[in-house]
Amino acid sequence: MVINFGQQITGQSMMNNYSTKVYSSVFTDDSTILLINALNYTFGILFTLTCTFLSDRMGRTTMLVIAGIGQGVMLLIAATVYVTTPNILADDGVGAALVLSLFLFTFFYKPGWGATVWIYSSEIFPMSVRGTAVSICTNTQNVSNLVMAQAFPPMFTAMGFYALYVWMGVNFVLAVIVWRFYPETKGVPLEEMDQLFGGADKVAVIHQNHKDDFSYKDEKTA
What's the confidence (pLDDT) of residue 83? Predict the structure, then answer.
């Protein structure tokens, strides 16, 4: 549930729900803002597709850690570019650099905290409670998304691009949490997931039960 809640506080709500508000601080032309949004969403789909082959090669937690660090760095660059430029509306080059850094944020987010969180959440729970547990995780993300949707507008109005420094810190903290506390699940069968998290080896238990059943039947036949 921590990573499900964390997915929504990485700053992605800014890009998904309020990107027009963000880009209007940099560009005055509405058509330019619409074009940037269209490109961002289009590339977001392509970036998400990379998760289909990276998650089983790099590993789930590795992707989350790398993505968290990458997202934090991109937010740091975007915020610094904006707050250190006196008149950003008059400098198209600086505006383009800021847009590029936010596009790269999407590049890290989509296959990492955007997609891999769903993979990790769907495979770590025991088979008996997996459906219920995944539903709770999904609702956790929905609640977190609602909180961020309500918190971002006043936060951005009051802090401007300094708000990106807050999400930068959140991303770094999330990366440390995953690195320290979340085991890698790449290559682990779903039946052995309990053992990875310190539970009993249910496969071994099932095999032992079958063996005991056969032994009991043999003794009864004899």
Answer: 86
List the alpha helices (DSSP H) in 50-188: 51-58, 60-83, 92-109, 117-123, 130-159, 163-181
Residue type, 175: A
**Residue 40 — very low, low, confident or very high, per pLDDT cuts 50/70/90?**
confident
Q: How far apart are the first and last CA of the chain?
A: 53
Minimal CA–CA distance to 109: which of 219, 7, 202, 220?
Answer: 7
> Using one digit for the tens of pLDDT, what is the confidence trace for 62-97?
999 999 999 999 999 999 988 888 776 656 778 888
Cα dist. 157→18, 85, 163 in Å? 12, 18, 9
Cα–Cα distances in Å, from 141 out to 6, 7, 125?
Answer: 8, 7, 17
CB atoms within 10 A of CB 23: 21
Tell me the C-alpha distance between 131 and 154, whole Å.
36
pTM, two decimal places = 0.81
145-155 b/e (C-beta count within 10 Å ≥ 16 → b): beebeeebeeb
